[in-house]
Amino acid sequence: MHFPLSAAPDVRICPSQRKVDRLIMDITVYEFEQLADFIYRKTGIHYEAKKMYYLSKRIEKRMDSLGIDSSIEYIRFLRYSDADGQELQHFINLITVNETFFFRDFPQLRSFAEHSLPEVIARKSTGNDNKLRIWSAGCSTGEEPYTLAIILKEMLDFSSLWDIEILASDIDLNVLEKAKRAVFSERSIKEVPHEYLEKYFEPSGSDTYQLIDDELKEMIRFEHLNLFDKTELRKHRGYDFVFCRNVLIYFDDASRKEVVDHFYVALNRGGYIYMGSCESAGRITTAFKIKRAGDALVYLKE
Ligand SMILES: C[S@@+](CC[C@H](N)C(=O)[O-])C[C@H]1O[C@@H](n2cnc3c(N)ncnc32)[C@H](O)[C@@H]1O
After folding, report:
1. Fewer Cβ within 10 Å of end Cβ, the chain: N or C?
2. Could you tell me which CATH number the domain at 22-95 has?
3. pLDDT score of 209
4. 56 CB near ligand 1 (under 6 Å)
5. Range(s) for CATH 1.10.155.10 in the chain?
6. Does any ligand 1 atom lie closer than 6 A to the CB of residue 105?
7. How far is the CA of 175 from the centre of ligand 1 (A)?
8. Contact criterion met (CB below 8 Å) for 15 and 276
9. Strand partners, 203
10. What pLDDT, on the 0 to 100 scale, is given for residue 11?
């Protein structure tokens, strides 16, 4: 097994706390509250008052495309005239935060590669179980699931003997389309260890890189999925690993707990959940056993 011991410096990005200029906002506090409440009930994403400017700019974009000129009219349209949810989807595509890159949080991935993955593989091998199921929940433009696919290919001696599926899901349809194209910016690949860059990517166009390994692509199944849709979530079971990193930071405690409780059910016994370095499953629920594995804390379903 081989996992590179060094990578470009670890960059941990926590949500920005920047203050905004409240004087240039175009929606009223009442409109913001209406909209924030609507988004929360549909997605679990919690918009605090400091995000009012951000949301206001996003609404403007949609109002321009629809020829609507008052925000309250747009909110009414979302609420009462969007029976098939098409406008809601357009709006969601605009308001999600999609920041991601390959090999994000390298110490955590190394812990997965060198500790949790070999443990699960060893247990499955003795039980003649060759199925490995991983879920990248909130996968954005695909860097996380493709990173996991690279790690699996590098770490599993006979990866072809394993029946591997990485479910990569997101609520935003635009990012899923990009993920399927597998073309990435320089910024996206900046943490990819050099030897993997040479092996799995090819320069394509100006400052972009195409992921070229079909075996990696075949491991991944993309799915449009709202983590706040209980009915859909209940259909997901049998995972050995859930990666839900830098997604629930945009939720509040109640919606976070709801989703993590679902992940607990979705995981097999002996399975692990990975959250971002600013987040902690232990703060949300006591259901998981916390273990130190290498440089990271990991959360195990016993
Ligand atoms: C900041 S990105 C994180 C990407 C990747 N997991 C990482 O750590 O690099 C957060 C992603 O979560 C998705 N997301 C937010 N709310 C969601 C929800 N309710 N259901 C599914 N995906 C959601 C967003 O669309 C976005 O692409």
Report:
1. C
2. 1.10.155.10
3. 98
4. no
5. 22-95
6. no
7. 10
8. no
9. 209
10. 33
Cα 157 to ligand 1 centre (Å): 31
Average pLDDT, the chain: 90
pTM for this predicted structure? 0.91
Ligand 1 near 210 CB (within 6 A): no
Is the CB of residue 139 less than 8 Å from the CB of residue 101?
no
For 159, the token pair is 């990866």
99: which 2 tokens? 């920041």
The 201-203 sheet, strands edge to edge:
183-185, 208-211, 201-203
Q: Would the CB of 179 count as within 6 Å of ligand 1?
A: no
Q: What is the rounded radius of gyration, in angstroms, for the C-alpha atoms of the chain?
A: 20
User: Which tokens sit at 236?
Assistant: 């997901």
* CA angle in degrees (0–180, nearest 5) for 120-124-128: 170
- Cα separation of 202 and 183, whole Å? 9
Tokens of 109: 């991935």
Q: Report residue 302's pLDDT band, with 50, 70 and 90 as the boundaries.
A: very high
Kindly report the three-state secondary structure assignment for every residue of 256-295.
HHHHHHHHHHHEEEEEEEEECCCCCHHHHCCCCEEEEECC
Q: Summarize pLDDT for 236-275 with one digit per residue, the tens.
A: 999 999 999 999 999 999 999 999 999 999 999 999 999 9
Domain spanning 106-300: CATH superfamily:
Vaccinia Virus protein VP39 (3.40.50.150)
Please tell me whether residue 189 adopts helix, strand or coil conformation.
Answer: coil
What is the Å distance from ligand 1's center to 246 Cα?
A: 7
